[in-house]
From TrEMBL:
Lineage: Eukaryota, Viridiplantae, Streptophyta, Embryophyta, Tracheophyta
InterPro entries with a match to the protein in the record: F-box/kelch-repeat_ARATH (IPR050354), F-box_dom (IPR001810), Kelch-typ_b-propeller (IPR015915), Kelch_FKB95 (IPR057499)
Regions of compositional bias (Pro residues) in chain numbering: 8-20
Organism annotation: Microthlaspi erraticum
Entry coiled-coil feature ranges: none
SMART domains assigned to the protein according to its UniProt record, in alphabetical order: FBOX
Region (Disordered): 1-24
Domain F-box: 31-71
Protein's name according to its UniProt entry: F-box domain-containing protein
């Protein structure tokens, strides 16, 4: 017998299963803290920025030095990371990106023909909520003490100076700077910390200052002039009691003994990195190398195709003993609001003839950024 009653309408698709994320989060946070630390210490640091967004307690553990100690001393889990800092005209601080590398690669000619990512290698922004960026780790150090001068990416400008003792694990306060700064450039020479920038460009009285470790006092440096202060991308190089400054259009040097600034015409190797006692640097749209203690630069052979496409805004670094190069390509039209960031991984071979040859392992577009951004710093860290 057939019933005249129609069955209730059933959905065509079953309802989605309930999300398991809250349960997983609850399970993780319910564990003892030392067990959470042990679990997080076994995860690649590349996942830390996203994990830091999960909860305040997880973020606190990720940013703690306890996690760093467990990774390095107990588990002995160190991994190499490459960061690229981009300069924005509206931000005093660098905007940091982390390079994520996949194992499969494409040939140079294939990648250069396309305006899209082909290898899967990407530059990933380091979220602002994840404060453990290269700028927070690269403090100037004297002996076992690290000096944190001013504010960092996720803190306001400050004149505070804090000193961290790596032996005791304790922080202490040092005399404040004369001017509030945010991520200033620093160099150390003869137990003195030279601090420059990190403030408004029209600040001429205290744009640079120096801290004497022995007397614990700050002193203003002479004004370098507007060409330095208003430069969009400043780089420092310390050599033989001289601080060289590469500005946008000219190079300058601060003579420490004479306490004066001068314009210099010599080539500055500020875009450089060291690999096995060989200094690699980028200048005049080419990659160069020189032996330790030598000022004679030689061109790295075999990079003709790469030299033709790279630009002036180029940064180089090292990853696993290989050379990493970043550069930006110009916008395709005047109306474009974005541009591409390229990256190349280069294998190096020093031959019996005394020449260094480079072989391009892969090259690709790794990020799209606002057209006003420029590469400013490449940092390699093992953490």
């Amino acid at each position: 017998m057939q019933s005249n009653t129609e069955p209730p309408n059933k959905p065509n698709h079953p309802p989605p299963p309930p999300s398991s994320q809250p349960a997983l989060l609850s399970s993780l946070t319910s564990l003892p803290e030392d067990l959470i630390v042990s679990c997080l210490a076994r995860i690649s640091r590349s996942y830390y920025p996203k994990l830091a967004l999960v909860s305040k307690s997880i973020r606190s553990i990720i940013l703690s030095r306890m996690l760093h100690k467990v990774r390095i001393r107990e588990i002995k889990f160190e991994e190499e990371r490459v960061y690229l800092g981009l300069r924005s005209p509206t931000n005093l601080c660098l905007i940091w990106y982390s390079l994520w590398i996949k194992r499969d690669h494409q040939a140079l000619d294939l990648c250069m023909m396309r305006q899209e990512n082909t290898t899967g290698n990407l530059l990933v922004p380091v979220p602002s909520s994840y404060s453990l960026s290269p700028s927070d780790i690269m403090f100037p150090n004297i002996g076992s003490e690290l000096y944190k001068c001013g504010g960092t990416q996720n803190s306001p400008s400050s004149s505070d100076v804090k000193v961290y003792n790596e032996l005791t694990g304790q922080w202490r306060e040092a005399p404040s700077m004369m001017l509030a700064r945010k991520e200033p450039l620093t160099r150390i020479s003869d137990k003195k910390i030279y601090v420059m920038g990190g403030c408004k460009a029209d600040e001429s009285s205290h744009w640079g200052e120096v801290f004497d470790i022995e007397t614990q006092t700050w002193e203003s440096l002479p004004d370098p002039g507007p060409e330095v202060r208003f430069s969009s991308n400043i780089k420092l190089l310390l050599r033989s009691e001289k601080i060289y400054v590469k500005a946008t259009n000219k190079n300058f040097v601060y003579l420490i003994k004479e306490k004066e600034w001068k314009v210099v015409k010599e080539r500055l190797m500020v875009i450089n990195c060291w690999i096995e006692n060989v200094n690699y640097y980028y200048d005049k749209n080419k990659c160069w190398w020189s032996e330790k203690g030598s000022n004679e630069g030689r061109i790295v052979k075999g990079l003709t195709g790469l030299d033709a496409c790279s630009r002036n805004d180029t940064e180089i670094g090292t990853y696993g003993g290989e050379l990493v190069m970043f550069w930006d390509s110009p916008a395709l039209s005047p109306n474009d609001q974005t541009k591409k960031i390229w990256c190349a991984m280069i294998l190096l071979d020093k031959r019996i003839s005394g020449q260094v040859w480079g072989r391009i392992k892969w090259v690709d577009i790794v990020c799209t950024v606002p057209v006003s951004y420029t590469p400013a710093s490449c940092v390699n860290m093992s953490t």
